[in-house]
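Training component of the fellowship. As part of building independent skills, the fellow (R.M.) carried out the full modelling exercise for a liganded target. The chosen ligand was zinc ion. The inputs are recorded below so that the supervisory panel can assess the work.
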Amino acid sequence: MDDRTGDPRPSWDEYFMALATVVATRSNCSRRHVGAVIVRNRHILSTGYNGTPHGVRNCFAGGCPRCARTTESGDHLEECLCVHAEQNAICQAALHGHAIEGGTIYVTLSPCLTCAKLIINSGISEVVYQGEYAFLDTVKDIFRQSGVKHRRLKATPLKQPLTASDGNRLPSKTIRQSKRRTVK
Ligand SMILES: [Zn+2]
Ligand SMILES: [Zn+2]
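Fellow's submitted model of the complex:
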């Protein structure tokens, strides 16, 4: 049970999703910014954001002709050069030799069918997503069949960190309380 009484910090879910949101800011796609973080035992294994493959001109600079056109969302995906955030996070793990089996992927948007298939076969066991983008019944069904859990995490505003000058004003009550509870 996650007893967070008196703990002023973000939960682990909020923390990793906030990191995924920061990762998304590096997206080079002109249409949509998505970020993903793969975690196991509260340890970050890999991150990814969407955009064109390494060495290919950035999407925002015209690198992906499909994104550059006024294409309806979801149309002509087979022509899209942009790699999705989940795909890039899985590729980064492969590139650097990090096993992600049993991990959790935090992603700022629910996964598409292609990403769902890769998530399943890379051994990831849980998907935590924030926004919902055409979360297909097919995706939910293959997750159910393969035993991959999924849940939506609502966006929560993250508290600003204490600055050095604020540090002196951290209420002693909070410190005493946090010492009593088990630190997770
Ligand atoms: Zn793009
Ligand atoms: Zn995808």
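The panel noted the following from the submitted structure. The longest strand covers residues 43-49. DSSP finds seven helices and five strands in the chain.
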